[in-house]
Amino acid sequence: MDNTTSAFENSLKSNDTEEQIDIWFYRPIGYQIALFCAKVGLRPNPVTIISIFFGVAAGILFYSQDLWVNVIGMLSLVFANSLDSADGQLARMTNDKSRLGRILDGAAGDFWFISIHIAICLRSMNEGWSALIWVPGVLAGASHVVQSAMADYYRNVHLFFIKGTSGSELDNSRDLQREYDELSWSKNFGMKFVARTYLNYTKLQESFSPNLQKLLGAVRQHYKLGLPADLVADFRAHNKPLMKYTNIVQFNTRVLFLFLWLFLDQSWIYFFFDMFVLNPILIYMIVNQEKVSKYFYEKILKKEANEFQSV
């Protein structure tokens, strides 16, 4: 393996959590952007902010019923996602990671799709739909928030088990609540507002994963010095097959279908695809992730009981 290939692979989170279209397309483009940014001294957070402008611009361009305008919007959204890939790769290449960067990275996609949902609703009303189109638009938007939040959470849990805290961005509401309480509204208004938003986001993730919370609690209690290799290997074998679902409910699948319906001038279908195709996949993902978590939680408790009896 040459140094260039090694440097590129080191800029990835993990092959376990990467989607093929990302490895083949977005990550190579993101890597080149990250190299350029590192050369000129541009840090990850400004790259994320720039991606927000391109993603929101895409939504605005989807409002038009002219296909050529929509195509420009599609290219803008693809570039926004390339920048979104680049900011994480740049952070790992330069070891310039921060809590604010993680929050911005998660918020970027929300800004993109808020713009896209608003544009589709307004476009649909121009095409003869009543204001009732906002109902599926809002419901699909809420679905998207939960889908993205849980997919992001499960990927970071997987990375936590196979790479430890240094390779994961896994947070918990207990620590975040303590940090939030230490901030003052009068002295740290901006950061406290961001911290409150991120705390709510993390609590949402935890509320959908009760068995996983038990497992993480047991891990923190029993493996303070690091996870044993056999547990890491066993968890990876059980959990890796579920990673494909975290990718399906996030960017690539939904955007490919969004582009299809824009080409067919039937953009409203996107809302129903989000609710009635991606939500069942989300439910399947959560149910099976909870089964895996319950299995390993009970395994840790059983091992602890056996060790206690042998003393």
UniProtKB/TrEMBL annotation:
Protein's UniProt name: CDP-alcohol phosphatidyltransferase family protein
Pfam families: CDP-OH_P_transf
InterPro entries: CDP-OH_P_trans, CDP-OH_PTrfase_TM_dom
UniProt keyword annotations, A-Z: Membrane, Transferase, Transmembrane, Transmembrane helix
Entry keyword annotation includes Transferase: yes
Gene Ontology terms, MF aspect: phosphotransferase activity, for other substituted phosphate groups
Transmembrane segment boundaries: 45-62, 269-287
Keyword Transmembrane tagged: yes
Biological processes, Gene Ontology terms: phospholipid biosynthetic process
Any one Gene Ontology cellular component term annotated for this protein: membrane
Species name: Dyadobacter luticola
Domain of life from the UniProt record: Bacteria
